[in-house]
Amino acid sequence: QPNNNKKQKKQKETRKMLDDLKEGDNVVTLSGIHGTVKKLKDDIVVLQIDNNVRIKINRTSIGMNRESSKN
């Protein structure tokens, strides 16, 4: 069962990272798109990926918060 515990820990860390997202965070989506969080509403995140280019994605599509990985 040690492998299952690792999986659960990873899932818990991912949930916490998604819950802790805030405007201004630099993130990477699961598909590799880098952007800055501009707006959060429920399960939708608006990411700015370039000047005047924003996309709406599901919160669960965020793979990594580059802000929290700096610590």
Give me some keywords for this one.
alpha+beta, single chain, 71 residues
Molecular structure report:
With 71 residues, the protein is an alpha+beta fold. 25% of the residues lie in helices and 41% in strands. The chain is built from 1 helix and 5 strands; from the N terminus they run H-E-E-E-E-E. It has one helix at 2-19; strands at 26-29, 34-41, 44-50, 53-58, 62-65. A 5-stranded antiparallel β-sheet has the order 4-3-2-1-5, covered by helices on one side. A hairpin with a 4-residue loop joins strand 1 and strand 2 (34-41). The N and C termini lie far apart (30 Å). The mean pLDDT is 91.
Outline:
The chain has one helix spanning 2-19; strands at 26-29, 34-41, 44-50, 53-58, 62-65. The chain has 71 residues and is of the alpha+beta class.
Summarize model confidence as the mean pLDDT: 91
The parts where pLDDT drops under 50 for at least 5 residues are none
End-to-end Cα distance, whole Å, is 30 Å
Order of helix and strand elements from N to C terminus: HEEEEE
- Find the structural class using helix and strand composition: alpha+beta
| Shape designation | elongated
Which percent band covers the strand fraction? 35-45%
Helix content: 25-40%
Number of helices: 1
Spatial ordering of strands, largest sheet: 4-3-2-1-5
Largest sheet: 5 strands, antiparallel
Number of strands: 5
Radius of gyration: 13 Å
What is the topological layout?
Elements: H1 2-19, E1 26-29, E2 34-41, E3 44-50, E4 53-58, E5 62-65
Antiparallel strand pairs: 1-2, 1-5, 2-3, 3-4
